[in-house]
């Protein structure tokens, strides 16, 4: 059973890697044809893009089925397959150079995967709906869930008051939610397998509750990973998220499914060493790969201002899509107008006059856009600064005379 689960996980991750790069190729081709995929829905007309989506869905189904045949402590760490596949697809099809650290990282991931499969539990816990309901009320799991809730709230409080101090502040909540996703995915997959074998589990409410948990936690994870991609480089976010996601999946398997029960001390140590090798391999492969002419292959989200951040792929998944290059965001009308007024840029000002047709400011009709003396420019600049400060809830004093 565990071999079937491992094969499904590896095959699913390989399929996802290929699908993500097909989607990126389709988006790049549309960009070369003059379409802007980030501001329109032209990519929905691309057959190649839809081929990538279909392949990605098949890969996700494979990952989902893997939880029904293998322990969560085995299936989750095998996600390293995606990182390795992305790296070598970039080398073969995108012309990136094969680095020594890529080879070293690959060897480490292979060794880690081997140790994880060999020294993990050799039995797969498949629970019925009634057993899942009982496990949800176990003291060990309730304590684990309580700690997760406290940490989740504490991290969000820190983010609210202090902002993005470190990438972990965004990755940790995503990993906490991922642990619930893993628990629910394995539960639903197991119940579907039992139903297919003749023991129907579809009449129990816990089956549908778990499906809702999968959808909700998956969508919210995207939000946190998006914010992490906005504030930090993908080469930092991807390995950090993989490590935290894997650790959370292992803890979920331990506290909810008891997957470490019966393992010897040596087995546990070797299993954890295999995880460490996988983490190190992911670090070696992902670090230093991003460049001006070589966008990282491990980002599902486009970069840009917060309002423009959105998943390229419309499905909630935690895999990695190619990150497109940044677009210039200097065409905000108000920013152009204020820059023109303060710096005296007559070209941009004339464009605004023609677009308005009245010779007046788009945002302040009483203001003529012709000639401004230094005093007026300074007043405009200070007025705009004061308004921005008031929006942030800060008090400012007008010291100008």
From TrEMBL:
One of its GO terms (cellular component) is membrane. The chain crosses the membrane at residues 48-69, 75-94, 103-121, 141-159, 164-183, 203-224, 236-258, 264-285. Its main location: membrane. Residues 350-381 have a biased composition (Polar residues). It is a multi-pass membrane protein. This is NIPA-like protein 2 isoform X3. Residues 339-401 are annotated as: Disordered. InterPro entries: EmrE-like, Mg_trans_NIPA. It comes from Acanthaster planci (Crown-of-thorns starfish). It holds the Pfam family Mg_trans_NIPA. Keywords: Membrane, Transmembrane, Transmembrane helix. Residues 384-401 have a biased composition (Basic and acidic residues). One of its GO terms (molecular function) is magnesium ion transmembrane transporter activity. It comes from the Eukaryota. The keyword Lipid metabolism does not apply. It is found in: Membrane. Belongs to the NIPA family.
């Amino acid at each position: 059973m565990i071999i079937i689960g491992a094969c499904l996980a590896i095959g699913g991750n390989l399929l996802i890697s290929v699908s993500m790069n097909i989607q990126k190729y389709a988006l790049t081709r549309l960009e070369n044809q003059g379409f802007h995929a980030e501001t329109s829905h032209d990519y929905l007309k691309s057959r190649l893009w839809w081929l990538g989506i279909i392949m990605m869905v098949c890969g996700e189904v494979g990952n989902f089925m893997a939880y029904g045949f293998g322990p969560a402590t085995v299936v989750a760490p095998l996600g390293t397959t995606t990182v390795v596949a992305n790296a070598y697809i970039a080398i073969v099809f995108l012309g990136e150079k094969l680095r020594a650290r890529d080879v070293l990282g690959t060897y480490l991931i292979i060794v880690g995967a081997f140790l994880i499969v060999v020294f993990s539990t050799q039995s797969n816990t498949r629970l019925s709906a009634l057993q899942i309901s009982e496990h949800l009320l176990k003291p060990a799991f309730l304590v684990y869930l309580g700690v997760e809730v406290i940490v989740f709230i504490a991290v969000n409080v820190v983010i609210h008051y202090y902002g993005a101090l470190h990438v972990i502040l965004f990755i940790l909540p995503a990993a906490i939610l991922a642990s619930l996703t893993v628990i629910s995915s394995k539960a639903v997959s197991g119940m579907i397998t039992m139903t297919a074998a003749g023991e129907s589990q579809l009449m129990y409410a816990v089956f549908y509750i778990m499906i809702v948990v999968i959808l909700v936690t998956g969508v919210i994870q995207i939000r946190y990973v998006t914010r992490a991609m906005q504030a930090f480089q993908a080469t930092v976010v991807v390995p950090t998220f993989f490590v935290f996601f894997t650790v959370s999946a292992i803890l979920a398997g331990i506290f909810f499914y008891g997957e470490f029960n019966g393992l010897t001390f040596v087995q546990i140590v070797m299993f954890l060493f295999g995880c460490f090798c996988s983490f190190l391999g992911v670090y070696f492969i992902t670090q230093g790969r991003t460049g001006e002419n070589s966008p990282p292959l491990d980002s599902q989200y486009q970069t840009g201002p917060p309002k423009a951040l959105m998943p390229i792929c419309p499905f909630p998944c935690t895999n990695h899509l190619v990150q497109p290059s940044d677009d210039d965001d200097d065409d905000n009308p108000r920013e152009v107008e204020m820059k023109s007024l303060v710096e005296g840029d007559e070209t941009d000002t004339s464009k605004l006059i023609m677009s308005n047709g009245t010779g007046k400011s788009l945002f302040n009709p009483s203001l003529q856009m012709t000639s401004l003396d230094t005093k007026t420019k300074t007043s405009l600049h200070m007025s705009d600064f004061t308004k921005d400060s008031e929006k942030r809830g800060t008090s400012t004093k007008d010291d100008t005379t």
